[in-house]
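From the pipeline queue, job 12 of 40. The input is one protein chain; the requested action is below.

Action: predict structure.
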Amino acid sequence: MGVDRDDRMIALAASRRPNADFRIGDALDLPFADGELNGYRAEKLYHELPDPARAVAEARRVLAPGGRIVLIGQDWDTLVLDSDHPGLTRTIVHARADTIASPRAARRYRALLLDAGFTDLTTEVHTAVFTDPALLPMATAMADSARTTGAITPAQAAAWTADQTARAETGRFFLAVPLFVTAATRPRPRNHRPAQGLSASHEPPAVPAGGLGAGAPRTSTATPDQPVPQSAGAEPPGGASAD
């Protein structure tokens, strides 16, 4: 099963998985009854939400006791770029982060889940490393964003972009993105008898191209008969994924 605010993404997902159940909805108002789901997964989503705690509360509502939640995403303040201008790079990264609703949501996953009453927490960090010069536009877009917000001058943006361009042309481009993976369980009440719950399967379609721009918030779900993963592979630092 999958949920997305954008009907175009729902149509795309349905064309790739015609036997799956895809619904238009929002992370803050999921189209499911209380305790209806056995699993919940949100990837590259929470940084787009002004109040991620509300999404966690909604996830807890739709999860059955014993249901598992998995949150995956990057911390926008910890992107790593090799550069001849390290101080300027820090400024650019932070300036880009400041344009995002909740840029540090990923580092807060554990605290958010604890605050919502989840238990059995696990946290992992997987670092995706990108050296392909095709990703240069993602980096230069960060400099453009910092220049637009006034965090750096046009001259600084030009110098930094020239440095990154030269690196890409000589095989020295380097971008590392830490991806945080946090999972937890909605606890069962004492003497609780597990319900049958909703059985579903999920496999996300490919993430659309879009660079570092953000898409519409998305969530997706899975169930114990197809265990929710507690680790994730490397993915490009795109916007919210099309889960």
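Job complete. Residues 106 and 217 are 15 Å apart (CA to CA).
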